Amino acid sequence: MEQAKELLVNMGPQHPSTHGVLRLMVKLDGETVTWCEPDIGYLHRCFEKLSEFKTYPQVIPFTDRTDYLAAITNELCFVEGTEKLFGDAIVVPERAQYIRVLLAEFQRICSHLLALGAMAMDIGAITPFLYAWRDREKMYSLFERITGGRMLYNYLRIGGVRNDLPAGILGTPTDGEDKADQTIWGFINYFDSYVWPQWEALVTDNRIFQWRTQDVGKLSAANAIAYGASGAVLRGSGVKFDLRKNLPNAIYDRFEFDIPVGKAGGDCFDRWIVRAEEMRQSSRIVKQALAWLAENPGETMGKVPRILKPPKGEIYHRIEGARGEVSCYIVSDGGTNPYKVKWRSPCFVHLQLMPLICPGQKIADVIAILGSIDIVLGEVDR
Amino acid sequence: MDFLNEKFPDAQLSDQLNGDTEILVDTKEYEKVVRACYEAGYTFCSVLSAIDWKDRLTLVTSLCRIVPEEVNTRTIHVKVDLPRSGGRVWSISNLYPGANWHERETYDMYGIRFEGHPNHRRILLPDNWQGGFPLLKDFVDHRPKRPRLVRHRYAE
Questions:
Q1: Chain A residues lying within 8 Å of B98, measured CB to CB
Q2: How large is the ipTM?
Q3: What angle, rounded to 10 degrees, do the helices at A94-123 and A268-295 form?
Q4: What's the rounded Cα separation, in Å, for the pair A159 and A312?
Q5: Looking at domain B2-115, which CATH architecture does it have?
């Protein structure tokens, strides 16, 4: 009998479903994947080497560009890590802490919207992607008013934030859909009353979408931990672990929110549900932060020396980013530049899951899996 | 971390600024220490990287615990001092499959070799990269300089 040959398929480097410049080598037996290997490095921009030649404040804009869809959380990681290097010398004002949390959670909604939209589009539903774009546009115009930038903000500072929130951006709890792109309350109300129910009705409850994602790309909890997965991928596998609860940075311990976990054994649909539910939890946090910020005006920048020279030391700071555990290892030799910055990006680690999950799946499901682990190639290659 | 103190009395333990534990061990003991951490519940390899101190390299392996109820969970940083060129340690990717790519990246950037690694290749740089290990402090970029773009004489 003639032996069927395996077929090697190259997806990428510029494949529309790969969320960036990624080459995915897939071996096929018929339609079934037998082997998969990602090839990365196309977007390597020497972030770690460059930051050794820049002062601490100058590194902040670089961190934006690693994960350009969730820039605030990256800034937060580096800025807080540097503040910890100073020990007690830098005290961040409370209002600045609240602004940081507000923006980080707002960013999380924004990033998850794109993640869900892109995953739906990869599977073949184009409409949700355009709806995601519509809503992110509103969020970006709010970000633009607060920080001056739409995607890459350079807004957080070591010791606080660059400027206070502009007048009137908070809005009032009664703001409705018509103010969605003018006030944060307006957007959050619009999100709760319109966007989230729409996503649920349009995609989550969609029978075809469920067929495409349920029981596809299963990842057990033990494998998720062993492979270093974090964020929605880890929680989708049923592990209730969120660094916002388990290692609270900033002032996350003051907020009330729940951690959603997947219940069906970590398939693509679980990861989808976790992300969708996380957006709602983020909107809860944003509301609590808004209530506090409306009543407590004050300073947004602590007392910081003119030239930042942290004492000698090393710090490893982990925070929960939009895609998982973002953390940085900063080594200071007492000078103005960091001696070393190591950036731990969740997407880099998550991409390792592809050779584990993909074998045995159909070729069309590889796209669904890639969408569900939600990678940003800028962060993978740094 | 008491279990490390008991098992490895020679190793130097210290605390990082945020409460993490650092343990500096000998190259030969590296795998044993990592295994001890793994057996003590530190089953999550957060990151693996190196620091170039100009006279030596320090390999840092950060291991964490995933316990849903634990608040303020802390990390153990296992450190090994290695020579600047030709450093070799045992790979830990059999215990932590997630460390696989981190080890490849550390090799890519610092030239540390991981024995027993299943796929010991460069990862971010191209496979045929000849320029050395970029994150070493004395790295010099020997590639030919690109000509600067000059404005054409007749453009004005």
A1: 226-229, 349, 352
A2: 0.85
A3: 150
A4: 19
A5: 2-Layer Sandwich (3.30)
